[in-house]
Amino acid sequence: MPSSKKKLSEFNIRVYGLIINAENKLLLTDEYRLGQYMTKFPGGGLEKGEGTIDCLRREFMEETGLEINNISHYYTTDFYQKGWFYENMQLISIYYKAQIIQPERLVVTDKKNDFNPANKNPQSFRWVPIAELNEDDLTFPVDKVVLKMLQQELNISVKSSLI
Question: Model-level pTM?
Answer without folding.
Answer: 0.88
